[in-house]
Design brief:
Elements (H helix, E strand, L loop, with lengths): L1 H23 L4 H25 L15 H27 L2 H9 L1 H12 L6 H23 L8 H24 L11 H27 L11 H21 L5 H8 L3 H10 L6 H21 L2
Helix pairs in contact: 1-9, 1-10, 1-11, 2-8, 2-9, 3-7, 3-8, 4-6, 4-11, 4-12, 5-7, 5-10, 6-12, 11-12
Length: 305
């Protein structure tokens, strides 16, 4: 069941990336990110209120358990990690082709894999190792494809921004497993709804301060903000993808290394939309990169059964 949910999350993430690329094209980054956190918070705030003051959500999937500072401090750290990853990732998405961003993000689970092996003691079989190896090979092929479009991986600051976003995203994935693992297994034991609901609110508060202190005073000297309807869909697809992701991790036997790898299958959606919607170039060489990622997903799926 957790594998099926991971694939659903991957598809939703693909549409999230497409909407993000559309919203950021020629637009100010920080306001788009602020609105994203605001809409996500509004989506989950009713669950917090209904869970705290009524019994309507008791014993349902959407119930948000009450918790104190002992738990909230862990969620606050989660919000800091995710928001940092988003800031770097949003700037990279604005300045790089989505057909390059997607495959690079698809290599993120390799970092999660190493961390999962070191921290949680997860072990992979031969099929799963084959999938990881293909993901590593695809990274070097992506580098080759990027050169054809004048993207020098060694000197392009947006590539470094994207890689940093990927590293922070991998840290966030490992931290998710720690947050939701039961205390007897060395985790915090938080429910998925507690984590997803509250970290969105913390991100909104932090982005509000960022807007007031950084963007607002300099807004006339930077790229102007333009409202686009795709901004709303960024939040909708992201919230749905994260909800399914957290639910998958909460199920018995779920492996963070495999779930994270499958989620990077979102590259399929972003690749085809990059070709059809954004008319990006060098699709033949990039298609090979994507096929290797897909083959890696297939090997991981076989290895998990």
């Amino acid at each position: 069941m957790w594998l099926i949910l991971a694939f659903c999350s991957a598809a939703l993430l693909g549409f999230y990336d497409v909407c993000k690329k559309h919203a950021l094209s020629g637009n100010a980054v920080l306001p788009v990110l602020f609105l994203n956190t605001a809409i996500c918070s509004l989506l989950f705030l009713p669950f917090i209120i209904l869970s705290s003051y009524t019994g309507l959500l008791n014993s349902t999937t959407f119930y948000v358990e009450p918790c104190g500072w002992e738990q909230h401090r862990y969620i606050l750290l989660k919000a800091c990690i995710v928001l940092s990853s988003w800031i770097f990732g949003y700037f990279a998405m604005k300045h790089l082709p989505i057909t390059i961003v997607g495959p690079i993000n698809a290599t993120r689970p390799v970092m999660v894999l190493v961390g999962a092996m070191l921290v949680f003691g997860e072990r992979l079989n031969v099929w799963q190792w084959a999938g990881v190896t293909l993901a590593i090979i695809s990274f070097f092929l992506i580098k080759r494809s990027g050169k054809k479009e004048g993207v020098d991986f060694r000197h392009n600051k947006w590539i470094f921004s994207l890689i940093l976003a990927a590293v922070l995203g991998a840290v966030s994935g490992l931290y998710d497993k720690y947050l939701m693992a039961p205390p007897e297994n060395g985790g915090v034991g938080l429910s998925r709804m507690v984590v997803q609901s509250w970290y969105n609110l913390y991100q909104l508060a932090m982005m509000g301060l960022t807007m007031l202190m950084i963007w607002w005073p300099t807004r006339k000297n930077s790229t102007p903000f333009t409202w686009k309807w795709s901004i709303i869909f960024i939040s909708l697809f992201l919230s749905a993808a994260d909800f399914v992701y957290f639910y998958a991790l909460s199920l018995p036997g779920a492996m963070i290394s495999i779930v994270s790898m499958i989620r990077r299958g979102s590259v399929v959606v972003s690749f085809f939309c990059g070709a059809a919607v954004f008319k990006e170039k060098n699709l033949k060489s990039k298609a090979l990169d994507m096929l290797l990622v897909l083959l890696g997903m297939l090997f991981l799926y076989i290895g998990s059964h």
